[in-house]
Amino acid sequence: MTSALLLLFVVLLVVLAFEYINGFHDTANAIATVVSTKVLTPRQALLLASSTNLIGAFCGQAVAKTMHSGLIDDKVVAITSLTILCAMLGAIIWNLITWWFGMPSSSSHALIGALIGAAMASAPGSWNWHVLIWSRHKIDSKTGLATADMEGIFHKVVVPMISSPVLGFSIGFILMGILFFLIRNWRPNTVNSTFGRLQILSAGYMGFGHGMADAQKTMGIIMLTLFASTKAGDLDGLPAWLHFLRIPDKSASIPLWIMVTCALTMAAGTYAGGWRIIKTLGHKMVKMKPVHGFAAETTAATILAVTGSLGMPVSTTHTITTSIMGVGAARRWNAIEWSLVERIIWAWVMTIPVTAALAYGFYKLLALFS
Hints:
The protein is mostly helical and 370 residues long. 71% of the residues lie in helices and 2% in strands. It has helices at 3-25, 27-36, 42-57, 62-69, 81-100, 107-122, 153-182, 188-232, 256-272, 275-284, 290-309, 316-331, 338-367, and strands at residues 137-139, 146-148.
């Protein structure tokens, strides 16, 4: 086995480790509300979330396509196994740090930031911004004019990074207001029993959205890794039974084996649970009852389903966290622990630059020994 092929297998294992960590790091996104409202026990909620994660992971490939071909311009920089390895290490370290402190940061943005940093380190010069696909244009065959086709970091990352938290807060606030109006004359026991049952559905919907959003990101990274290795000739001479690893066409559909592997890995990580972040989202930020949990989960899951179908790697964490904030604000503005919110937002702001710097540093360090 050549050193290049050995490195490829190490990278694939590290990518799957990131997927597993993503599962337990972001478990809170799917189950914090349903656990905090005591509609389900933690283990019941984990089983529901991991099952619906698995289903969501098989729905669509738009986000995976963005990750493997919509962010980094391979005409400027040649992505290698070392690039991917350093990106994964940067993202994993940040995820573990934020998990340890119970901060619900974005695994999606950690991955994107680390990929950007590693790609820049791989490119000629220092911090070469030309490696990034900021936006793409297509030529209209009739007019000959260039028009934006909604691809690239600006449309797929920057716009949703700003808009999804705003939508989460706003829609959560409005939906909670509508529900308050509809149930204003209901007895408290009726409200709790009705929305207790409905929250099981919304929690499953949230797990589905989480799987659809997050599992596809890692599928895209594996596609990018295998395409780069195929292009570099690292997979030449493979035995016939390993030919499924070759990805000669970057625009090809995600192979079933990649989808199954990523889906099962994240579902396993989800079932492992991320109790530190569950406490932060489900208990510390705002106290919730089933009706609040239903509103927050329905809001967040709908945003994830829509953006996922558009190929936008939106943060599950940002979406559910701001949905919970919106629901809590509709109940009472000071019901939210705003000092905790401030710390969470700082973690969000730091995610992309810190992971980019970590991945950049890893690449420069490891390149000295390669």
